[in-house]
Design a protein that fits this description.
By secondary structure, the protein is of the alpha/beta class. It contains 15 helices and 10 strands. The chain has a 6-stranded parallel sheet. A hairpin with a 3-residue loop joins strand 2 and strand 3. Its EC number is 1.2.1.70. It holds the Pfam family GlutR_dimer. Belongs to the glutamyl-tRNA reductase family.
Length: 420
């Protein structure tokens, strides 16, 4: 038996490959059932996110070729087109990899917390499909426990390490509750998308996305439950904004001091939190001179991000030490499973001897044999039956000069050293 991880992530494959290998949620159940039908596969789960697709399998043997072939068939790839992007781990490598992924140590953003929820979703999908058993169930549970321990005992997730996340954390310091606020995001690129995600996760009240290309703004707004406007409409909506985050590729400022003066009058000088993440700037620097405006640029946040990244990197070293211990704990459990069947067989054999001897003893009692004689016979018979096989094997080991087996027998039966 082996435990395999096979997959791609943001470090091994470009987005064009990752998006083709991704498993949409509605296809996951059927894919899992198809995977478990392979004769080599005992258990299986699939983790599929925008940055990684990984298959976790309990295999009969260590041949990953059937899983590679299955993946190619599922996602319509030729083997030669995908093999260069794939990585694999077995056994202890798989355990360590899953722990590191769940802790955010293998993420694009070090320590990001979303991946743990995605792993829990992957496990739940496999449970519903009936494709996880004793081994993977235990492994996922230990993975979640390891991630919780890392987040509890280290600072891996305490400090924002993207300017978008840092901006939202700063907004939370200025405003107690985002639920009653309106945010306007200017632009529709990756930074604005990440900002929209953070705002949504922190339950922003209303979200407006303004972009030069209205269709792109509309697509992004739909994704996060907001609504879209064009850049030309932005001045009309500015007074609604408690939070403004701008990040476009415009060579000139989009919003000037006059627009904010007008908006502040309409707001009766209710504070505005503004973050300009664009280079060149989207917002005129003079806006900072206005009262009731909190204006921050990308440079203001970058220092915070760099300090926080250093903190996370130090925490990551602590996390690796925790993972080392957790991996060893799981390996110990896994090794114990190899002995479980033997223990079960020993007990079953002893119970068969017991039942046979007991039935004969009961018959003797019914025939009138004394209880004392019957009990003596039962004790002698059980003793002889139980020790016969090991005694015979120990004797044979002595004949064959297998001192190692004799030593193991003494340890197994907790016998004192004959020389003491």
């Amino acid at each position: 038996m082996a435990i395999l991880t096979l997959g791609v992530n943001h470090t091994t494959a470009p987005v064009s490959i990752r998006e083709r290998l991704a498993f949409p949620a509605e296809q996951l159940q059927s894919a899992l059932r198809d995977l478990i039908d392979l004769p080599q596969v005992g258990e299986a789960a699939i983790l599929s996110t925008c940055n990684r697709t990984e298959v976790y399998c309990e295999l009969d043997g260590r041949d990953q070729r059937p899983i590679v072939d299955w993946m190619c068939d599922q996602r319509q790839f030729d083997d030669q087109d995908i093999s260069q992007y794939l990585y694999s781990h077995f056994d202890a490598g798989t355990i360590r990899h899953m722990f590191r992924v769940a802790c955010g140590l293998d993420s694009m953003i070090l320590g990001e917390p979303q991946i743990l929820g995605q792993m829990k979703t992957a496990y739940q999908a496999a449970r519903e499909a009936g494709t996880v058993g004793k081994i993977l169930t235990k492994l996922f549970h230990r993975t979640f426990a390891a991630a919780k321990k890392v987040r509890t005992d280290t600072a891996i997730g305490c400090s924002p390490v993207s300017v978008a996340f840092a901006a939202i954390r700063l907004a939370q310091r200025i405003f107690d509750d985002l639920g009653d606020l309106t945010a306007i995001l200017v632009g529709a690129g990756e930074t604005i998308e990440l900002t929209a995600r953070h705002l949504t996760e922190n339950r922003i009240g209303h979200l407006i996305i303004a972009n030069r290309t209205f269709d792109r703004a509309h697509t992004l707004a739909n994704q996060f439950g907001g609504f879209a406007i064009s850049l030309e409409e932005l001045p009309k909506h500015l007074a609604r904004a408690d939070i403004i985050v701008a990040s476009t590729g415009s060579p000139l400022p989009i919003l000037g001091k006059g627009s904010f003066e007008s908006a502040l009058r309409s707001r009766r000088h209710k504070p505005m939190f503004i973050v300009d993440l664009a280079v060149p700037r989207d917002i005129e620097p003079e806006v900072e001179q206005l009262q009731d405006v909190y204006l921050y640029t990308v440079d203001d946040l970058q220092h915070t991000v760099e300090e926080n990244l250093k903190t996370r990197q130090e925490a990551a070293l602590q996390a690796e030490e925790i993972i080392d211990l957790e991996v060893e704990h799981f390996l110990s459990w896994l090794r114990a499973q190899a002995a479980t069947e033997t223990i079960r067989d020993v007990r079953r054999q002893a119970e068969l001897h017991r039942d046979a001897a007991l039935q004969r003893a009961l018959r003797e009692l019914r025939r009138g044999k004394s209880a004392e004689d019957t009990l003596r016979w039962l004790a002698d018979t059980l003793t002889n039956k139980i020790i016969h096989a090991p005694s015979s094997q120990i004797w044979q080991a002595g004949v064959n000069e297998r001192a190692d087996i004799v030593a193991v027998a003494r340890e197994l039966f907790q016998l004192k050293d004959p020389d003491t």
